User: Which sequence fits this backbone?
């Protein structure tokens, strides 16, 4: 399984508030707050169907980004960005004919999905000529109709558009962030990461992971640590604990079953490792931390450092 695809499973439209809005200047939209945007861990999608918009920082820093008809921009929340009809407050009235804009918000739920959210840049722009624009006409047609089941259709189309934009950004040379996201493209570390994600329950050792890349243990350890920022087995524990957290809150599996899926032979050893990592027992995590919950209060001062 591609780790990128696995992370996207936690960022899915679910009544994601698709709106088609006709805007006359002056106008301003914010990814959070007064315009109905999502909460702290969210992605907000903007796609002009006609006219143009400008993504700017509320504090006036940085250069404004033009978002033209057919372009799609995804903004990570929370953040300092607003979408307006002009590049700056003193730049006239923006587009004289206004704009027609599709907007949608994606709540980011679960530990795995928040991992993706934290890796993304503040915004991702996919130009209209890069292949995702064809989805906009279909979404435009769906935005104003409400027969039974239409919400499900819209949600899946939005998912398709989100994946198209993020995949295009990830595949673009020089755009992937540092860490494991970037290391996926490495000929040595990439196969090892994919092996871990495909079978986290396997009893991996440094030797067996090195065999996946056909390199020595020393070569793997050095290159993996340099590209990802931590040793292979430390990363594996991190990923297992991330998956386990979502299994505890997203399924009815027993702690013993979750332990096996996370690569632990018994529930006792898993529970001890889980508490060291998350600062709370598996049963306590299940009771207090739903997919949408902020568990910082439940886990005390633990910062989630790998065991």
Assistant:
């Amino acid at each position: 399984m591609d780790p990128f695809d696995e992370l996207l499973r936690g960022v899915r439209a679910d009544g994601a508030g698709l709106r088609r809005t006709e805007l006359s200047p002056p106008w301003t939209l914010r990814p959070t707050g007064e315009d109905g945007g999502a909460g702290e861990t969210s992605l907000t999608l903007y796609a002009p169907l006609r006219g143009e918009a400008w993504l700017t920082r509320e504090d006036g820093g940085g250069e404004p980004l033009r978002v033209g008809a057919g372009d799609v921009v995804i903004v990570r929340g929370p953040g300092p960005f607003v979408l307006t009809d002009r590049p700056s407050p003193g730049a006239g009235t923006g587009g004289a004919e206004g704009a027609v804009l599709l907007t949608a918000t994606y709540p980011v739920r679960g530990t795995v999905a928040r991992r993706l959210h934290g890796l993304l840049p503040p915004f991702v722009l996919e130009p209209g000529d890069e292949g995702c624009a064809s989805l906009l006409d279909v979404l435009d047609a769906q935005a104003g109709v409400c027969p039974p089941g239409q919400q499900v259709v819209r949600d899946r189309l939005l998912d398709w558009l989100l994946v198209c934009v993020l995949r295009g950004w990830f595949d673009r040379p020089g755009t992937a962030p540092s860490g494991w996201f970037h290391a996926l493209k490495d000929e040595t570390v990439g196969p090892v990461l994919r092996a871990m994600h495909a079978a986290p329950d396997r009893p991996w050792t440094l030797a067996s992971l090195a065999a996946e890349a056909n390199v020595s243990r020393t070569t793997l350890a050095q290159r993996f640590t340099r590209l990802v920022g931590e040793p292979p087995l430390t990363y594996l524990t991190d990923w297992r604990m991330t998956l386990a957290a979502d299994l505890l809150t997203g399924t009815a599996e027993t702690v013993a079953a979750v332990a096996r899926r996370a690569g632990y032979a018994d529930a006792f050893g898993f529970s001890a490792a889980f508490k060291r990592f998350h600062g709370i027992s598996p049963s306590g995590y299940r009771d207090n931390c739903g997919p949408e919950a902020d568990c910082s209060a439940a886990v005390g001062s633990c910062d989630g450092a790998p065991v």
About this structure: The longest strand covers residues 42-50. The mean pLDDT is 81. The longest helix spans residues 150-171. The CA atoms of residues 111 and 200 lie 16 Å apart.
